[in-house]
Amino acid sequence: MSEFGEVPSGCWETARVDPNADFMGAESVFGYGSLTWKPPADTSEIKSFSLGYIKGWCRRFWQASVDHRGTPENPGRVVTILQASYQKSFSSCFQ
Q1: From the centroid of its chain, how far is CA 70?
Q2: Residue 1 has what pLDDT?
Q3: Res 46: pLDDT
């Protein structure tokens, strides 16, 4: 049970970020979720755009969301990315 009610089976309650991840100096963003089909409206800071993939990862509608999809009574699903051997996740990359 979460602050938003019961989370549907198979969904995560919140986003999971590696606490040891260091994003300082990162110059690229891999758009595995909404950036795939809805790039930023303000493109003034985008130096380049390309299509590509990352090996060993896959996209899944695995995370429950009530803040921008769904309601506390009926959480929506949002895309997250999971490690998955022998798979590729295709998407857009922004610098």
Answers
A1: 17
A2: 46
A3: 81
Q: Which two tokens stand for residue 37?
A: 């089909």
pTM check: above 0.85:
no
The answer to whether the beta carbons of residues 74 and 11 sit under 8 Å apart is no
Q: DSSP assignment of 19-32, as one string?
A: TT---TT---EEE-
Nearest CA among 78, 64, 90, 83 for reference residue 5: 64
d(CA 83, CA 79): 13
| Half-sphere exposure of residue 11: CA atoms within 13 angstroms, side-chain side | 21
Distance CA 81, CA 59 (A): 5
Q: Any idea which residue has 């990359």 for tokens? A: 93
DSSP 47: -
Query: Using CA of residue 35, residue 91, residue 25, residue 45, what is the dihedral sign?
Result: negative
DSSP-based helix, strand, coil % in the chain, nearest 5: 5, 50, 45
